[in-house]
Amino acid sequence: MGAVEILKQNLVIEPDLQSFVDFALKSVDRLGGDAFAASIALLDLLERLRREGVALGRPMTIRLMLRDRHLLAQWGESEQTGIASLNELPPPELVAKLRAFLENSVALVDPEILLQRNIDMMRHFDESRAKAERELELLQQSLKRRQNELMETMHQAETDALTGLFNRRAFDVKLKKIFLHTMRQKDSPISLLFFDLDHFKEINDEFGHQFGDAYLNKMAGVLREIIREDVDIAFRFGGDEFAVVIFADYPLACDKAKLVLELMENKVSIGITSIRRDTPNDLTLEEFIRRADNALYEAKHRGRGQAAVDVCQSWLSGNCQSPCPENERSEVSSLRPVEF
After folding, report:
1. Are the C-beta atoms of 86 and 67 separated by less than 8 Å?
2. CB atoms < 10 A from the CB of 206, how many?
3. Nearest-angstrom CA–CA distance, 243 and 148
4. Separation CA 335–CA 194 (nearest Å)
5. How far is CA 139 from CA 127, 128, 142, 147, 148, in A?
6. Residue ranges per domain, the chain?
7. Range list of H helices, 158-307
8. Residue of 2, 58, 125, 242 with fewest CB within 10 Å of its CB?
9. pLDDT tens for residues 18-51?
10. Window from 111-125, 240-254, 285-299 with minimum mean pLDDT
């Protein structure tokens, strides 16, 4: 004979444990086993189940199994313990009658026990729900901390350590997104300004790196002052090179450049270019950056301490529009100084 399930019972409260012990002893008696030895084994089983937290309101299924001449109790994933060993293998008819008797006995449990079982199950449910809510809250707090840590790490990765402005890495990422959106929508202009502190190496060599760092921070403070918070963006490439993206056409960018020159005592060279509605659709990001860089070079070439702007937005197509003067339509002369 293989393993046969004699009884299957849910243990929820202490009376369930007691009834299972009673059913097990009746089974031993009907199958002709040693009731005394079975009683000792069942007492050990009771203590073991109680240590594992059974009968405290959380349902746990236990089975009474007959395997050849051995009566066993099984629960959980693979827990089991022996209850009795029979002298001989019981006939199938006797086993079938015992199963029917136990099933009927489980169905006729005292109504008060059923009521208490329901109460304890509800209590366990409430406790489990409260525990789950606490664990969920802790998980959400942990997730929020990790999100904050990730945001801080990302912020540090794209921030210049000295000035607190965005760094070159952030410039490459953000400008690409802004450029592609602007070229696709053409709903609002943008201007790119490049800044180079004039003779910074000489200043650094003469006064020292500490003074040089303070000078760089002064420039960063000026850029923060002239841009609109949460609208325009300022960057430090490294060294004495800075950049600003302004969500406006070149006239406003020129006004911002004038303020920078005033606040930095005309010791900055500035290059400006813009994207407008009439900007050719084939303009590339690399060309856009090159225009601002060429304008910066033009400002430095003309004597530093000034700004140059690329105002000829259609020169690539040969259709040079105002305000680019008639005598300044070549690739080089489309870069001209800003007159304040």
Report:
1. no
2. 10
3. 28
4. 14
5. 18, 16, 5, 12, 14
6. 3-109, 168-337
7. 168-185, 200-207, 209-226, 250-263, 285-301
8. 2
9. 889 999 999 999 999 998 899 999 999 888 888 8
10. 111-125
Q: Is the distance from CB of 191 to CB of 274 less than 8 angstroms? A: yes
Q: Which CATH class is domain 168-337?
A: alpha beta
Long-range Cβ pairs for the range 47-51 (8 Å, 24+): 48/81, 49/11, 49/17, 49/75, 50/17
CA–CA separation, 216 and 209 (whole Å): 10
Segment 209-233, tens digit of pLDDT: 899 999 999 999 999 999 998 899 9
Phi/psi at 234 (5° precision): -115, 145
- How far apart CA 37 and CA 296 sit, in angstroms, is 99
Cross-strand pairs, 85: 70
* Structure token pair of residue 261: 């020159």
If phi > 0 it is left, if psi is from -120 to 50 it is alpha, else beta; for residue 245 that is beta
User: Alpha-carbon distance 310 to 271, whole Å?
Assistant: 8
Q: Is residue 124 pLDDT above 90, yes or no?
A: no
> What is the CB-side half-sphere exposure of residue 326 using CA atoms within 13 A?
0
- Round to whole Å and give the CA distance between 80 and 98: 21
Q: Tell me whether strands 268-275 and 70-75 are parallel, antiparallel or unpaired.
A: unpaired
* Residues 105, 98 contacting (CB under 8 angstroms): no
Instruction: Tell me the one-letter amino acid at 328.
Output: E
